[in-house]
Specification:
It is a single chain. The protein has 77 residues and is an alpha+beta fold. 42% of the residues lie in helices and 26% in strands. It has 2 helices and 4 strands; from the N terminus they run E-E-H-E-E-H. It has a 4-stranded antiparallel β-sheet, with helices on one face. Helix 1 packs across helix 2.
């Protein structure tokens, strides 16, 4: 809700996917995350996928969420 480019979130366990507004935004978001140290993969036309290892720590999850928020801000201006 804080980031209007994210339209839907879904997942099971640690594998999480979400949709953004369009394909170009998905590619820009993927690049923004990568530049900040987080690997996010595009899937489909406008989907993005997170699949952390099962040994991920709470601190790493918090950092990933911070990077995702920064990437949302970066791609929306």
């Amino acid at each position: 809700q804080q980031h209007p480019i994210v339209e839907a979130v879904r997942g099971r366990g640690l594998m999480i996917g979400f949709d953004v507004v369009d394909h170009d935004m998905a590619e820009a978001f993927e690049r923004a995350c990568f530049e900040r140290g987080l690997l996010v993969l595009t899937c489909g036309q406008r989907g993005l996928r997170l699949a952390p290892p099962l040994v991920v720590t709470e601190a790493q999850c918090e950092r990933a969420l911070q990077i995702i928020a920064e990437a949302c801000e970066a791609v929306t201006g």
